[in-house]
Amino acid sequence: MGRVRRLLGKKVVIGILGVGILLVGAGTYWFQPWKLWVSETVREAAPTAGDGRGEAPRTLATGRLISHEHATSGTVRILRLPDGSRTLRLENLDTSNGPDLRVLITDAPVKEGRAGWFVFDKGAHTSLGKLKGNKGDQNYVLPAGLDLNRYTSVSIWCDRFDVSFGAAALTRV
């Protein structure tokens, strides 16, 4: 009887350890904690006309990023190129790295503190794609039909946890 108890006890301990290892592995994959120590810097040049006419892009809107879930700073500009296309440009971006970060343009108001963390996917929003890097300068093409009168803010959005790392209200120029 004592031998059976010892054998069952070992199997239970091994089972618990196995489940624990699986949970730690899944949690590590989900949270990706190593990204807190790894920065990705992107240095894209501002878009140019490229048509030989020498016209410079025109700034349509600007904004300054504020911190939400993570310390975030930098500026946002929306540029219209001479060919009519528009680009959202992040300049001097500095935020934390994280899992599944996106650039969203939204109709949500930018709120300071925790009140602003979760609002950017509630109303109208368009993802401009994955954040290319958590530091530096980067460009995102805006869809042709996007109404800038409706979309008034930008968020560095963590799609995995549905939270804003930082955001900027857009002011028309």
Automatic annotation (TrEMBL):
<keyword id="KW-0472">Membrane</keyword>
<protein>
    <submittedName>
        <fullName>Electron transporter</fullName>
    </submittedName>
</protein>
<feature type="transmembrane region" description="Helical">
    <location>
        <begin position="12"/>
        <end position="31"/>
    </location>
</feature>
<feature type="domain" description="DM13">
    <location>
        <begin position="58"/>
        <end position="171"/>
    </location>
</feature>
<keyword id="KW-1133">Transmembrane helix</keyword>
<dbReference type="InterPro" id="IPR019545">
    <property type="entry name" value="DM13_domain"/>
</dbReference>
<keyword id="KW-0812">Transmembrane</keyword>
<dbReference type="Pfam" id="PF10517">
    <property type="entry name" value="DM13"/>
</dbReference>
